[in-house]
Amino acid sequence: MPRAIEIGGRLVGKGYPVFIVAEIGINHNGDLRIAKRLIDAAFLAGCDAVKFQKRTSELSVPPDQRDVPRETPWGVMSYLEYRHRIELGQSEYSEINRYCREKGILWFASCWDRPSVDFMEAFDPPCHKIASACLPDDGLLKHIQKTGRATILSTGMSTIDQIRHAVSVLGKERLLITHSTSSYPCQPEELNLHMIPTLSRMFECPVGYSGHEVGLQTTLAAVVLGACAVERHITLDRAMWGSDQAASVEPWGVMRLVRDIRVVERALGDGIKRVYDSEIPLMKRARRFQPGVDLSNQSTP
C-alpha cells in the first residue's frame, strides 16, 4: 500500500504536511458572492483546498418530500424548489473554477449521485469526495472509482463492515479515508478520535479527519493522533441560515486552526530521542557540579 496519495500535486499521507480542506458545502446558500468570500477566507487562512457539495435535486429529494412546504429566507417554497434554490449550476461553478485557479487553491466537491460526478468531471477536479451518507451506494462508488481520481471516503454513521465493503469497492490505491461522526454539531464524547489510528491500522491507507464539532481543540487532537488530512466546515457567520452553519468555523477560526495545525506538525517530531544544540549550554551549566559526568564531548548526535 502507498503511504501517501497525490491530490492536486500534493502528497497526502504519513510524513507529509496535513492536507487542510475548508468545507464550503452548501453554506453559500446558492449565492456565488458568498461562495467567493468563503474561498477568499480559506485562501487567506492557508487552506490547501475548498470543497463544495453537488446534488441533482430530483434524485436527492424523495418524491414524498418534494412538495412539502419549507420556510426559507426567500419565502415559503416546496422542498424541491428550496433544493434548486441553494444548488449552484454550470455558470456558477465555471466562475468558481476560474476564481480558485486564479488564486491557486484547489477545489472539488462531494457528489451525491452519478450525474453530479459527471458534472464535476468537466472541471478536472483533483479528487472526488464521497459523503458519509453515500458510503453504502455501490453504484456511486463504482462510478467514482472509474474516474481514476484520488478519492476521499468519509465514514460517518457507518459500521466497520460497511466501511470495509466500501473500501473493497473503491480499492486502496488512490484512497484517503476520513474518520467522521455525522452529528451537527457533534458532542466531544461522540468524536471517538482514537478511530483515526484504528482505521489506519485496519486499512493501511492514509486516514484523515472530517469534523463537525464546535471549537478547534479536538481537530488539533486529531492531527496529534495521526490525521494526515483535516476537513472543517467554513462559514461567514455561524448564525446564518442553513443546516451546517452552526457546526462550521468562521474565518478568524479557520486562520487559527491552520496556524495551530502547522505548529503542531512541527512539534510532533519523529519520535527519535536526541539532545538539541539549544539544550547544550543549559546542560553544561546545570550538570557541571555532578560527579562522574563528563561534559567535554557533548554534542547533538
Structural class: alpha/beta
Number of domains: 2
Question: Can you count the helices?
Answer: 11
- What is the multimeric organization of the chains shown? single chain
What would CATH call the architecture of the largest domain?
Alpha-Beta Barrel
Q: State the helical fraction.
A: 25-40%
Strand order of the largest sheet: 7-4-3-12-11-10-9-8
Largest sheet: 8 strands, parallel
Low-confidence sequence ranges: none
**Span from first to last CA?**
33 Å
Q: C-alpha Rg, in Å?
A: 22 Å
Tell me the strand percentage band: 15-25%
Shape: elongated
Say what the CATH topology of the largest domain is: TIM Barrel
The average pLDDT is: 93
Helix and strand string, N-terminal first?
EEEHEHEEHHEHEHEHEHEHEHH
What is the number of strand segments? 12
The CATH C-level name of the largest domain is: Alpha Beta
Describe the structure concisely.
With 301 residues, the chain is α/β, with parallel strands linked by helices.
Protein model, in words:
This protein is an alpha/beta fold and 301 residues long. The protein has two domains: 266 residues, TIM Barrel; 29 residues, no CATH class. Helices cover 36% and strands 20% of the residues. The protein has eleven helices and twelve strands. Strands 7-4-3-12-11-10-9-8 form an eight-stranded parallel β-sheet. Strands 1-2 form a two-stranded antiparallel ribbon. Strands 5-6 form a two-stranded antiparallel sheet. Helix 8 links the parallel strand 10 and strand 11. Helix 1 packs parallel to helix 10 and helix 9 runs parallel beside helix 10. The longest helix is centred in the last third of the chain and has 18 residues. The protein is elongated, with a radius of gyration of 22 Å.
